[in-house]
Design goal:
557 residues; 18 helices; 5-stranded parallel β-sheet; FAD/NAD(P)-binding domain; 8-stranded mixed β-sheet
Length: 557
């Protein structure tokens, strides 16, 4: 039983509802349960895993190295679990999350196959009422979204989309039993991180693979390999140091950069360090210099971008195909940098793989038998949409959240998301968003960002319990300041030079605003810690014993 701000008793079914049973939902459940809260997790899928439950397309793999793409909060977990490769493949990550769920006995508080269709704030009791597709309603004090940043698939609304008579799939809703490509003409739309993984995995498995590319990308070799026993021993022996360095870094990755900036280095010196990092592969390449410098110094960025362009030209036999694959419309890193696991560019040297430039000749429509561009018709048996997500806000808005006075989150975020620290939004009390808009999230190694948010939220709820508060809300002034701060940081970087999902530019009609916090996880952690130390500075907290009129006040003790 809880007590509301007017001093009356308010029954809630549970203390906290968490939406989503991926990396964030699982840890949030564990953390709050340990604090003695009655927690219920609702999950749309029939298993834990989140992103790694849904994205089972061929080649799906995480671009963070496996030894840091896991939980750091429990030493026993990383003592017992062993990753098999440098970068974890989707089935292994899913297995890891299932193992964690069992190991921490989390399933008993998770309701599977439950889709949340709305969440409404009841002002009379200061509680949230969360409704499922099957009509079930649950009331809760705290409403915590753990829905992931990339979980609402985006599928372009091409003319004739539903007329296609072959098999079609979105990569983020891949059938559990897989798809048979043998003897098939397969088409794939999209060459983002997903398309690049898919194309290199499926090239050679179909009778013919046709790639419809609108914008070429800068794929850096990941240099995946098995994690040998001695390498693993070394990782285990150094985990404390690894986690500390990861938390204290811009991207949540513990890699040293070779130089702070390229300032003072000759072009040849720069290319030499880039070559070294190219051989190391993965996000270590982005770490050649302090990543902020590559993403804000246009001259340095052009040297790095040109370095990658030359690598692409070297790998592709046909010069015309090579030029189509070379990105010139945006600087490296202004879109999420993809990784190449399986000779992506070399795939286009195969006779059974062809590239169609749908920037030059756009897709006119989907037909019963394939795709018609303004130039040609392509016959297809299978059509794959690797077309990405309504990122960062899509899954949150799909929850149909309605705050006090009937104001919806969709109305509030009409001109782009507005949050304080990406954790809360003014006008929606007791609603926490794990890795929400305007937090570092997708610009970092996600588990690092997730753990920090989960721990901050759990500490905040613990603080509220200790001090007799039962309502918290971001103040409007602190939110305005944070939004302005995030926008200003982004404007000083190169992000505006790409039409990316970071800015909502991939979804027609979506407001274009840079959404993640680009100031680095290390700085962000410090800001959040300072806010908590200062009694949740910038948040308004309410006590149950207050009268309704003055229930909400700045924390004063
Ligand atoms: P992305 O990065 O959004 O990529 C989507 C791809 O689909 C991209 O190449 C798009 O081209 C293409 N696309 C989207 N709409 C169309 C239309 N209408 N016509 C042609 N091509 C289109 O999604 P991913 O799933 O690859 O990656 C998302 C993140 O998941 C990734 O960055 C990692 O963080 C994990 P465009 O570039 O917009 O011209």
């Amino acid at each position: 039983m809880d007590v509301n701000t007017a001093g009356e008793s308010a029954d809630t079914d549970v203390d906290a509802v968490v939406i989503g049973a991926g990396f964030s939902g699982l840890y949030m459940l564990h953390k709050l349960r340990k604090q003695g809260l009655d927690v219920r997790v609702y999950e749309k899928g029939d298993e834990v895993g989140g992103t790694w439950y849904w994205n089972r397309y061929p080649g799906a793999r995480c671009d963070s190295e496996s030894h840091i793409y896991c939980y750091s909060f429990d030493g026993d977990l990383h003592e017992e679990w062993e990753w098999s490769e440098r970068y974890p493949e989707q089935p292994e990550i899913l297995e890891y999350l299932q193992w964690v769920a069992d190991r921490l006995d989390l399933r008993r508080n998770i309701a599977f196959e439950r889709e949340v269709t709305s969440a409404t704030y009841d002002e009379s009791s200061d509680t949230w009422s969360v409704e499922m597709a099957d009509g079930e309603r649950v009331s809760t004090r705290y409403f915590i979204t753990a829905v992931g940043c990339l979980s609402k698939p985006f599928r372009p609304d091409f003319d004739g989309r539903d007329e296609f008579e072959g098999d079609w799939h979105h990569t983020a809703r891949w059938p559990e039993d897989g798809v048979d490509f043998s003897d098939k003409h397969v088409g794939v739309i999209g060459t983002g991180s997903t398309g690049i993984q898919f194309i290199s995995a499926v090239g050679g498995r179909a009778d013919h693979l046709t790639v419809f590319q609108r914008t070429p990308n800068y794929a850096v070799p990941a240099r995946n390999r098995p994690l040998e026993d001695d390498r693993y021993e070394e990782i285990r022996a150094n985990y404390d140091d690894i986690w500390e360095r990861a938390r204290d870094s811009r991207l949540g990755m513990p890699f040293e950069h070779e130089h702070e900036t390229a300032y003072g280095l000759s072009e040849d010196d720069i290319r030499e360090v880039l070559e070294e990092r190219w051989q190391q592969g993965g996000f270590r390449f982005l770490h050649t210099f302090e990543p902020g410098s590559i993403l804000s110094n246009a001259e340095l960025n052009e040297t790095v971008s040109e370095f990658i362009r030359e690598k692409i030209r070297e790998k592709v036999d046909d010069p015309e195909t090579a030029e189509t694959l070379v990105p010139t419309d945006h600087p490296y890193g202004a879109k999420r940098p993809p990784m190449d696991y399986n000779d992506y560019y070399g795939t286009f040297n195969r006779d059974d793989v062809s590239l169609v430039d749908v920037d030059a000749a756009p897709i006119e429509r989907v037909t019963a038998g394939g795709i018609r561009t303004t130039d040609d018709h392509y016959d297809l048996d299978v059509l794959v949409y690797a077309t990405g997500f309504d990122a960062m806000t899509g899954a949150l808005l799909a929850l149909d959240v309605e705050g006090p006075n009937g104001r919806t989150l969709e109305q509030k975020w009409n001109a782009g998301p507005r949050t304080y620290l990406g954790l809360m939004t003014h006008g929606f009390p007791n609603l926490f968003t794990i890795t929400g808009p305007q937090s570092p999230s997708v610009l970092t190694n996600m588990p690092m960002a997730i753990e920090q948010h989960v721990e901050w939220i759990a500490d905040c709820i613990g603080y509220m319990d200790d001090h007799g508060y039962d309502r918290i809300e971001a103040s409007e002034a602190s939110e305005n300041q944070w939004v302005q701060n995030t926008n200003m940081l982004a404007e000083n970087m190169l992000f505006s030079e790409a039409k990316s999902w970071y800015r909502g530019a991939n979804v027609p009609g979506k407001t274009q605003v840079f959404t993640p916090f680009p100031g680095g996880l290390d700085n962000y952690r410090e800001i959040c810690a300072r806010v908590a130390r200062d009694d949740y500075d910038g948040f308004e907290l309410g006590r149950p014993s207050s009268s309704a009129g003055d229930a909400v006040s700045e924390a004063d003790d």
